Every structure is written in structure tokens, then in C-alpha cells.
Amino acid sequence: MKIVDRFPHAVTVIENCWIPMSDGCQLAVRIWLPAAALRSPVPAILEYIPYRKRDFTRARDEPMHYYFAGNGYAAVRVDVRGSGDSDGLLLDEYVRQEQDDALEVIRWIAQQPWCSGAVGMMGKSWGGFNSLQVAARRPPELKAVVTVCSTDDRYADDAHYMGGSLLNENLTWGSVLMSVNACPPDPEIVGELWRAMWRNRLEHAAFFPEVWLDHQRRDDYWKHGSVCEDYDAITCPVYLVGGWADAYRNAIPRMLAGLKVPRKGLIGPWAHVYPHDGVPGPAIGFLQETLRWWDHWLKSIDTGIMTEPMLRVWMQESVPSKPFQEYRPGRWVAERAWPSPRIATKHYWLNAGRLSCAKRHECSIDFSSPQTTGLSAGDWCGFGIKGEAPSDQRADDGCSLTFDSDPLPERMEILGAPAVTLELSSDQPVAFIAVRLNDVAPGGASTRVTYGLLNLTHRNSHERLEPLEPGKRCRIIVSLNDIAHAFSAGHILRLAISTSYWPVAWPAPRPVTITVFTGESFLDLPLRTPDPKDDELQPFEAPEQAPLAEQTELRSVALRRIIERDLVTNETVYTIFSDSSEVDSQPSARFEAIDLDLDHTIFQRFTIGEDDPLSAAAEVVQKALFRRGAWKTRVETRTRLTSTENHFLLQAEVKAYENEEEFFARTWERRVKRDLL
Question: Considering the entire predicted model, what is its pTM?
Fold first, then answer.
């Protein structure tokens, strides 16, 4: 990463000021300004998230927003209502109040003497979500957005449910948000009110995993904030960005197809990170790329960005699976339009143990996977951290029903979402399947290319569910995650189907046996013919950013991932201990500029028995500490999920301390009825 310390514009940093809302609430904001902006107003770029601008995201914010200001933009980083140092309460994700506040924030920014009146909005994850949601509200001052690692569908393509199956990420992410939401505002910013604000947040704290588990179908709760409900509501230009190692890549091709505004898509090999920090590499000069976008739409400068192909992706080469990939071999390819007329469908029939181009006679195959199938899956969402990526799939393949192709006679590239159509029956009314597409090398190494989940009671709709009639055949379609992948000549395609995928997804209430009917089931691959024009693509610039915020590591970062199996109890425990969370926070650092020590740890444990889905248990424990001189606060949270055949059982505990004395404590115990899940 190149560090740039000289810019066209000198930069003034406003550590904190307040944006007044019409109901009397004030939102805390940090601003980076070109020094001459009061004399010569500039466009503004807004990032609007609940992840504590003062401390948690300080190390990430400083080099990015300073860079924008140094290149002639006002960079504005706002804490969402109820988070960080802002007034009010944060009671859920993406609520109407958050969007209403954003409209007032954008209007306030546009009216400032340093702003030209043109505003862009950008963000990753939460900030990518609400950039789209706010764009759909059409504030006149908002001229363009950049959305990174986000989605258009809060039910089908977010951290809660996948194919109607419950993700363990629902508990993990909900626990992280509970912990962040329970942290105190900074007394140096809010003054003597900090204790009252802190206590008010703690007393009104939401048990987020329960909130989301109360909505197991795609109801109006999820439709709110899902811009796929009305793509036409978005009328400003949109740049969609993501990575193949991230969980949020499917929305990019979907929105390119659904939106009618000027739009572009970019998908690299990256995890859930900004592309200038891209892991797996190669990282790119994303800040320069976004400047080209902002210059075009906010300053009316012809940068050429809109004459380039609509979609640009990293075509990944076949490589052996590793739990961490620092660099993913491949090359940049592009499509002028999406859906692309250049993508053809390659059809493979599922015959007995084989993937074949020709259909053979029908036969039935029964299978039931151990509950531990999925331990090689890696995390549902990657953050560029060691140990999180899928490992060699042979162990999971051995617990699955597999179909192999013949060795490929020549290289084959795919781009898009593979789909699997299965004729099957189940011996239980509630079941889900996991379907993986793997790349098997000549030596036998099995690499997961992409995968999909489907709760079979959602086979026709995520809104109107239908229990399975045991023994009755039905036809289902499983859409796998979008991907760009090049299978090498001599490699084998493997389709692997399992009835469990732990710990990515919560198990069905009973062990399930599925019968698949071959000769009637098939795999469709989105085949891409290489385009000679790919060689003419302008390369991205090398990544660069402004200097990092001055900080000192307080202790070395610990990271452990351990899988243990007790052969006496037949129980498997998957334990993850790390010093990083899902909100770009620094795990253990001292920020000299604000005289603050910050420390954060997270512990996750997933337990299940080989044969008993009701033995499943997930637990998340977190600790966050803030210290400045004599002021010291600490927050500890603990959440746990188990289940019976008919209910989910949720437990949580929050404890807050000031100078080692208990300031607040609260516990939750909830039972939520399983809804064909």
C-alpha cells in the first residue's frame, strides 16, 4: 500500500460537530475538508454507519476520508442515531428513522458553506445497504452512490437466512451489534451526559438475534429496506462493488440487471473489505477509482469511467484450497452489458455418481449426511482473516452425495450463478440441502468454487411455505452463489449435495434422508467464452491511501481456530477466538490523537453431535474496553442459541462496568417457535 502524504489540497479535520435533526436529536459527525472549501465550495461524500467514528473505525476512516479531502471533496463520516456519540437509540438495522435522518443529514451537508450542493454517498456493508436505501428515497442533493459489499434483498441475501435456512451468522452478527451498541459515548465529545446516554442505551438494548428470528419468512419486515422491491425508485447513478470471498456478491449482477440508471459493477477476489485493502489480493487503487466516479458525477469531469464496460470481474484460476489466500491468481475480464449475451448455458445431467452431457436412465439414491458435514466450509462471510476461507473439501465430500464429471478436455470458464435442478423426496416434512460445486485437481484435492442452500419448505416461495410430504417427489431449483472461475484442463467438476452444513447453517429439527432421482436432475453452468478484448482493459492503479491514524498496538493479536471431536460423546466443538470483529474495529490499540486505549475480543463456539441435530449449540462472548487516564469502561456480552424440535432457545447477557464497578447488567431468555425451519 502506497502512503500519500502530499495532496492537491491541504486538509482541515473537524474532530466532531453536530447535525441537528428536526426532532431535537443531534448526530455526531467527523469531517475532513479541503482547507479552501469555505472560499471555493466542493462536493461532499457521506459515509453513514453505526460503527463509532471516534474509535472503532478511526484507523480505517482516517486514510480514506483524508484522501478524498486531499483530492478536493468534503468527506463526512456520521454516526447513525443511537450509535457512537450520536443522540437517541439504535433499536434495529435499517429502520425508517435511520433513512429519515439521512435525508436531513444530506440536506444539512448540501447547505453548508463549504459544500457545492452536490452530495455522494458511499459505504461498505451497513453503509452500502443504506446508500441504496437512501438513494431509493430520492433526496435531490444526492447525485451518485458507491455501494460496497451490500445487498438489495435483506431476507434472501443477508446475514440472517440463506435459501430460507437459518444462518449462524444471525447470532454472530446480532451479538456483535449488541456489543457495539452497548458501548458508551465518549465523555470528551458528549460531556457529562455520557453516563445518562450510556444507561439509556443499555436499558433499551435490543436482543437483535431474537428480533430477526421473529421473522423466519420473507415478510414486510424484510421487504422494508430491500431495494429489489422497486428498482425504479433509485434514480441516481450507482457503482456496485464486491468480492468473490465476500458473502455479498450476488446482488451486483442482480442490480446491474434490475436497475435502469447509469451503473457499473466491480467484483474482485476480495473478502468483506474495501478493495484498496483487498484480501485475497490483488488489491487495487480503489480510492483512485472512486475519485474517477465522483469526478464524473459530482464535478461533471469526463473521466472516461462511463465509456468502460458495465461489469468487470476477477476471473479466478484453479488453486488448491487453503484457509487463507493472500493472493488469488486470475485476471480481469469484462462484460459490456449484464445480463451478457456472451454467457451460454452448459448443461450436465446427474446420472449415477456422474455428471454427464447425456441423460441416462433414472435411478434413485438415498443419502443422509452427518450433522458435522460443513466443517470445511469456512465462514459464511470472509473478512480477509487467516483461517476463515474454505479448506480442502474432501472430508465434506465424503459425507455428501457426489457427482463427478469426466476430466475436462480443455479449460472452461464460468461467470454467473450456476443452478441445480433436483428431482427428490424427503422422509421428513422439514429439511434443507446444501449444494456445492467443487473443482477437483488430478491429485484429488477438492476446492469449493461456489455453493447454495435451500430450505425445502421454501422451494416455491420464501413467503408461502409448504411442508414436504414424506416420500413424495418434487422438483426444486437451488441457485448457487455467483462466481467467476476457470476450471483447468484435466480437472473434474464435482457436485456435492448434503443434508447439513454446520456451522454455516442451523440443522433441521430431525435427521433427514433425501432421495435424489438421477436422470431427471441436472446442473446448469454459466459458460463464458474468453474475450480477446479483455487483454485491452486499462489496468487499475496500485492501491494508495493517506497516512494512517497515529496508533500503537497494545498487545499482539491472537487468532485461534480449533476443531475438537470427543469420540466418547461423539460431539464436535468448533472454537474461534480472535481480536477482531465484523465492524472494521481495531482489536487492541492506543490512539494518541484522542488519548484512548481500545481493546476488543470475540470468542465463538459451535457444538454439535454427529447424529443429533438437537445437540446443536452456538455461543458468542465479547469484551470491549475503553480507557483514558482515570476513565475506564468495559462491556461484556454473551449470547447462546440452542433448539428443541419446535422452538429456538435464545439467551443473552450484557454487563457494563465503570472503573471495575458494575454499572449495568441485564439478561434475556427467549423461546421462538420454529416456522418450518
Answer: 0.97
